[in-house]
């Protein structure tokens, strides 16, 4: 009897332990595949970003060359100088990231040759300008042809990466959908083991009356624990990854509960990370959409500030632009105009300190501050304030200051820090465009003045000819 009872226990609990190991291994493999797919998606996004930067650098080079051709001033060549090296470095990085992708590697080499040809045309026009030779239409058309070819080739490479991204996303979704299946199978197998255990143990208890009550109580306890674990597993399969099993037993079922807790925690961390990354990418994409094509500096800063304030749920915000050692208020959201300074020195107040140090400054549980949230019922002070410097290529462009009624979380800080480079680039571009328009206006005014002088000279010549004819007569 004892031998049969022990043998049954060994078989049943051994089978349960095997189910636990199998389910844990399957869950680990599934989670590992989820993380691997996430890394591959991030890798594809990195390549797409570098492809966009290649065109951006080439555009900056064109802009600088165009400004030099119009004005003849060397400062316009700042964005042109070194652009070929930057593009080459970006293409080399793309090639390293695309190792094993023959088509992308060949396209990267073709893109490098096109950029080299385009930069040669730009350099030729610059050298001709220095010699006093004006550009001819054919040279400009040749440059446009190379630029169009570069854009088309970059678009082709981006399309390939987009296809890869789609495939990897499908793979990620597949692994995400298979994980609950593993959990359900493990739960069903555990339930099956519980049923078999009940009948086997109950049969042995009937033969041993002296142990009947004790064994029945144990069986009831096991059944309840299995039902609890099954309920928890079902909730996990439905997406509730924060639920925990309170069973702290040292037996197999306790181990199974611990494994379910660890699996739920791992799933919660994985999906939280995916959610944060998606939120971050969505925010950066939305911010870029707000900035694309906008050349008016005041409108651009307001669009940026309005989007960020809404996206991070900051009810009060201010955007200061840096110039000549001062920060000048360019845009504000829900500010109390009577308490906010329009101009701040570097090192003064929170925004000035951020501008001077070039680092973000965060204060929480705010006491006295000049940043006030204005609303129809009055004004309130924010609980947390963060000042983030906007830098572009190491140059301070401005400072964004946000106030919130709650503390800023880690992902919000990452979003603000990540988006400042694109903001700085957009503002720098708007300023360059504004300066270019001013130069074009000055050139047009000078041209009109020269035309007026030319007309005046023609009138004088006409009068001299009349006088000469009179003298001759």
Quick take:
The protein contains nine helices and eight strands.
Query: What's the end-to-end separation, in Å?
Result: 152 Å
**Based on CA inertia axes, which overall geometry fits?**
elongated
The strands making up the biggest β-sheet line up spatially as 3-2-1-8-7-4
Radius of gyration: 35 Å
* Biggest beta sheet attributes: 6 strands, antiparallel
Q: In sequence order, what are the helices and strands, one letter per element? A: HHHHHHHEEEHEEEEEH
User: So how many helices?
Assistant: 9
> What is the percentage of strand-forming residues?
5-15%
Description of the structure:
The protein has helices spanning 2-71, 83-97, 102-130, 137-207, 212-237, 252-291, 297-311, 349-357, 410-472; strands spanning 316-323, 326-333, 343-345, 361-364, 373-375, 378-380, 384-392, 395-404. By secondary structure, it is of the alpha+beta class. A six-stranded antiparallel sheet has the order 3-2-1-8-7-4. A two-stranded antiparallel sheet has the order 5-6. Helix 4 (137-207) packs antiparallel against helix 5 (212-237) and helix 7 (297-311) packs antiparallel against helix 9. It is elongated. The protein starts with a helix and ends with a helix.
């Amino acid at each position: 009897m004892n031998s049969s009872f022990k043998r049954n226990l060994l078989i049943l609990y051994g089978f349960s332990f095997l189910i636990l190991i199998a389910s844990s291994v399957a869950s680990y493999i599934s989670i590992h595949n989820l993380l691997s797919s996430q890394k591959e998606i991030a890798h594809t996004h990195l390549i797409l970003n570098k492809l966009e930067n290649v065109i951006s650098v080439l555009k900056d080079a064109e802009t600088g060359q165009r400004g030099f051709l119009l004005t003849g001033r060397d400062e316009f060549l700042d964005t042109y100088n070194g652009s070929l090296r930057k593009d080459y470095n970006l293409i080399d990085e793309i090639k390293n990231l695309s190792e094993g992708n023959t088509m992308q590697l060949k396209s990267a080499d073709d893109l490098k040759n096109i950029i080299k040809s385009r930069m040669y045309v730009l350099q030729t026009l610059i050298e001709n300008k220095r010699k006093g030779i004006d550009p001819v239409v054919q040279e400009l058309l040749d440059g446009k042809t190379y630029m169009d070819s570069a854009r088309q080739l970059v678009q082709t490479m981006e399309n390939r990466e987009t296809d890869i991204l789609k495939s990897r996303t499908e793979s990620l979704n597949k692994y995400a959908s298979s994980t609950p299946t593993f959990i359900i199978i493990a739960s069903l197998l555990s339930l099956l083991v519980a049923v078999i255990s009940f009948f086997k143990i109950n049969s042995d208890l009937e033969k041993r009356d002296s142990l009947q009550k004790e064994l029945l109580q144990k069986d009831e306890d096991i059944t309840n624990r299995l039902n609890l674990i099954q309920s928890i597993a079902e909730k996990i399969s439905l997406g509730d990854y924060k639920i925990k099993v309170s069973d702290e037993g040292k037996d197999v079922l306790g181990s199974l509960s611990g494994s379910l807790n660890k699996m739920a925690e791992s799933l919660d961390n994985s999906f939280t990370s995916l959610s944060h990354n998606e939120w971050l990418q969505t925010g950066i994409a939305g911010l870029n959409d707000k900035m694309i094509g906008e050349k008016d500096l005041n409108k651009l800063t307001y669009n940026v500030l309005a989007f960020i304030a809404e996206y991070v749920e900051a009810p009060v915000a201010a955007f200061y632009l840096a110039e000549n050692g001062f920060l000048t208020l360019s845009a504000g959201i829900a500010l109390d105009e009577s308490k906010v300074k329009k101009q701040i020195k570097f090192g003064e107040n929170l925004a000035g300190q951020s501008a001077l140090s070039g680092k973000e400054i965060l204060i929480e549980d705010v006491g006295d501050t000049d940043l006030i949230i204005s609303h129809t019922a009055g004004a309130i002070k924010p609980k947390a304030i963060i000042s983030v410097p906007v830098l572009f290529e190491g140059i301070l462009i401005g400072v964004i200051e946000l106030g919130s009624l709650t503390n800023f979380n880690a992902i919000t800080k990452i979003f603000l820090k990540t988006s400042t480079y694109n903001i700085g680039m957009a503002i720098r571009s708007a300023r360059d465009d504004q300066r270019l328009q001013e130069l074009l206006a000055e050139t047009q005014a000078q041209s009109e003045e020269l035309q007026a002088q030319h007309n005046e000279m023609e009138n004088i010549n006409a009068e001299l000819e009349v006088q000469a004819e009179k003298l001759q007569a």
